[in-house]
């Protein structure tokens, strides 16, 4: 294995389990001196027993001042992975102040705090560095109801990636994020153990699979390494293309995926825009229009739209034909 990080110091938050543990172990293999922050002493002791060369720091990241004091003790950090995260399921209207604060403090404020300390130190010593924020695809587009605070915390993290990339770039510090959907860890257990949810998830994923820890680690390692030397302020999505819509049977409010839709007057204007949106949501879309020319144009721009040429002024004579063929046209949907 290449030792790309020889001589570098790395800090991974939430490195005692899941994605953070996997990235810490890979960083060690690639030559970095690794510090891991975790909250549970028990998990950190387990990590140290498995990987004696990893340095562990027990601190609750929700505590700004204690976190600051612990991180400042490390000194220069060349590579930072803001990975620690928590989530819970609660509808927006029922979310408690404490729940909201827990999520924002852990997922976002800790990243803000630690990136600031790391950056100040690197700037003072004129050294380059790299930061990877472990965000989520729901920070870009929420897809599961009941995760409002989590989605907001990840959206804040994505903005942190952009603003810090802008301000720290001139100092040679790059900042990027990975935005996974599902990775097989404790956090995602409730989803990948739900067969119905998983079937829907896999149907929507062009690769038809869930990201492994290795998939997540490979993306993070790329962003930390010189292989991505010209990349900053960007995100890598370990995701499905279909990130709009609602996942999970109990929460389905409106799901267009796989449905058949008919848009009248869909060859131009608002109708055309609606038809195109429906295609993006993976509906099977039929468009009725009068002008053959306009229908051909929409078809040329979007191969998956089906077109039907009907002039509604002639509906009296054409109606029979249309209704007679309704079943085969729309497959009874
Ligand atoms: N798994 C997924 O499907 C998925 C998808 C998208 C994004 N993500 C993101 O990926 C990151 C890692 O997720 P994961 O699945 O690996 O989670 P995980 O297995 O639940 O691990 C979470 C880690 O964060 C640490 N942590 C939590 N709260 C902390 C606090 N207050 N202070 C210090 N450490 C704390 C935990 O430490 P303790 O052991 O001490 O509790 C643990 O090491 C998270 O930011 C998550 O939002 C995950």
TrEMBL record:
Keywords (A to Z) from UniProt: NADP
Entry-linked SUPFAM superfamilies: NAD(P)-binding Rossmann-fold domains (SSF51735)
Domain of life: Eukaryota
Keyword NADP: yes
InterPro entries (alphabetical): KR_dom (IPR057326), L-xylulose/Carbonyl_redctase (IPR051737), NAD(P)-bd_dom_sf (IPR036291), SDR_fam (IPR002347)
Domain Ketoreductase: 8-181
PANTHER family reported for this sequence: D-ERYTHRULOSE REDUCTASE, D-ERYTHRULOSE REDUCTASE-RELATED
Entry's family note: Belongs to the short-chain dehydrogenases/reductases (SDR) family.
Protein name as it appears in the record: Ketoreductase domain-containing protein
Annotated source species: Tegillarca granosa
């Amino acid at each position: 294995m290449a030792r790309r990080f020889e001589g570098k110091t790395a800090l991974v938050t939430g490195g005692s389990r899941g994605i953070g543990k996997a990235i810490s172990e890979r960083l060690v293999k690639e030559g970095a001196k690794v510090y891991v922050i975790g909250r549970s002493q028990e998990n950190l002791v387990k990590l140290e027993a498995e990987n004696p060369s990893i340095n562990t720091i027990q601190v609750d990241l929700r505590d700004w001042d204690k976190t600051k004091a612990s991180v400042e003790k490390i000194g220069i950090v060349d590579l930072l992975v803001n990975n620690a995260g928590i989530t819970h399921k609660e509808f927006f209207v029922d979310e408690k102040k404490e729940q909201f604060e827990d999520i924002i403090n852990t997922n976002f404020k800790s990243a803000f705090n630690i990136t600031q300390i790391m950056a100040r130190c690197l700037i003072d010593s004129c050294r380059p560095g790299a930061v990877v924020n472990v965000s989520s695809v729901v920070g870009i587009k929420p897809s599961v109801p009941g995760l409002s605070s989590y989605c907001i915390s990840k959206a804040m993290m994505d903005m942190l990636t952009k603003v810090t990339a802008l301000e720290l770039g001139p100092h040679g510090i790059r900042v990027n994020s990975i935005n996974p959907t599902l990775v097989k860890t404790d956090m995602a257990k409730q989803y990948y153990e739900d067969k119905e949810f998983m079937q829907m998830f896999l149907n929507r994923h062009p690769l038809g699979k869930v990201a492994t820890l290795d998939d997540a680690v490979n993306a993070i390692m790329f962003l930390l390494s010189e292989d991505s030397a010209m990349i900053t302020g960007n995100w890598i999505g370990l995701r499905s293309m279909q990130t709009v819509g609602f996942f999970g049977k109990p929460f389905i409010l409106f799901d267009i995926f796989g449905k058949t839709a008919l848009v009248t007057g869909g060859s131009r204007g608002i109708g055309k825009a609606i038809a195109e949106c429906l295609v993006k949501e993976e509906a099977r879309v039929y468009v009725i229009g009068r002008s053959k020319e306009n229908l051909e144009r929409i078809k040329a721009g979007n191969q998956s739209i089906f077109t039907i040429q009907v002039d509604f002024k002639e509906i009296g004579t054409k109606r029979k034909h249309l209704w007679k063929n309704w079943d085969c046209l729309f497959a009874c949907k």
